[in-house]
Amino acid sequence: MAYSEKVIDHYQNPRNVGSFGASNEVKERKDVGVGIVGAPECGDVMQLQIKVGDDGVIEDAKFKCFGCGSAIASSSLATEWIKGKSVDEALKIKNTRIVEELSLPPVKIHCSVLAEDSIRTAIEDYKRKNGKLDEADTGHAHAH
Amino acid sequence: MNFPIYMDNASTTRTDPRVVEAMLPYFTEIYGNSASRNHAFGWAAEAGIDRAREQAASLIGAGPKEIVWTSGSTESNNLAIKGAAQMYAKAPMGEKSRGHIITCIIEHKAVLDPCKRLEREGFDVTYLEPGSDGIVTADLIRAAMRDDTILVTIMWANNEIGTINDIRSIGAVCREHGAVFHTDATQWVGKMPTDVERDNVDLMSWSSHKIYGPGGVGALYVRRRRPRVRLQAQIDGGGHERGMRSGTLNVSGIVGFGAACEICENEMESEGERLLALRLKLENGLKGLMDVVEVNGHSERRLPHLTNISFGFVEGESLMMGIKDIACSSGSACTSASLEPSYVLKGLGLGDELAHSSLRLSLGRWSTEEEVDFAINSIHQAVEHLRVLSPLFDLHNEGIDITKIVWQSH
Fold first, then answer.
1. Of the four, B69, B130, B178, B384, which is 20 to 30 A from B240 by CA?
2. What's the predicted TM-score (pTM) here?
3. Is B181 helix (H, G, I), strand (E, B) or coil?
């Protein structure tokens, strides 16, 4: 399978790799939201962490990814796109935009879906920790 | 060193230049149809076929009349399995309980799919599960035997993990029970000593392109005595190959296949020793540099040139992206169209994540120590790069067992 240049670039130079601490530490931090989606037996696990300021703007984002090149690129791209956005703006990022940006073939669309899911899951985690989670924010149907 | 480096010899091999040399006259000079009995062009072609038949037979300890030419192992397997089942069926087409067949879940699809078709046609098939070492033992076969077992088909060596089954003992069990024994020996013949008499084999498939011969040619060994094995033809036509496989023979291809067999017979021992040393260097080199590197399948009963290694916490396709100068395969879902990880690795019962993290590296006649050194270094760098990215590696380092986590499944 041929990868687009952008996928190869993200693979070779992933942006914003890392985390804001060990898993038990970030669990306690109210300014950090964590989204872990996927499963090892499916061949994809994405972990997205967001650091949110008092104004509700995502100041920083870090990712880790176990998965194919397209999954790595999707999550790397997601961190770039959400940094500087408010959590509500970030929630508007759709997987189709990731597909377009990275020229993902149909067989790799699930990688972009995971990236979108990781953004939403991280934001939900942040909101839950801060008592801002509305009923409407939960229970999203996973149509895939 | 020339890049990319070829480490996918279990997939196919470079044709040996000596083989190409032997083939060339058969395109432009000796171009007759070997079935033309009435002129010199036909006789010359037939002489080439006869010689190849002897070369192929000699490699496996058979007689030349026991070789049936095919287009490759897939066809050989189809002919052997469907042909034997139909010939020895206990009941005619359209009825149930037509006979019992034993095979194994980690066989090649070219064995499993014919078995599945036979199931639809009224045969019973037992799919044995090997141990976690990938080995099918004679005891497993013995336990699965029934009074109506007509055919057993078990591969000699596995194409993904290189494990070797005890064919001689399995053949003996089949002989005891009067079942025909077929083995898909595609990864074995030409690499390891083969003697169909000593090893109790009735039917055996192998392919030219896996042993440095041209593509599109294969053979099926069909035992002619003690006992004589009969097959229902799957391709009907001019009655070539004693009626078992019609179709004008691919003379140049078969001549090349014969030459490839002869070279393998002469060079197998030294080549096997050389490749085993290289494979061990590769495996030990990688294991020495990193933790959680597992060689899949039985540790000793394996082909000399093939290794299947899982690199924990790293996904196989992304690993292959990082070693683009090395041509190899992965058991990862992402490298296949199906999005399913390798059924062979899953069949070992060791979990899907193992399959997603695996690479198959297979060495060959032109592999060098320099290439192995390059591969070790290159794979090491790629795994390190990906482990920095891997959330699973973090969890591992925090002492968390990832198999115990409940993941949000998709």
1. B178
2. 0.92
3. strand
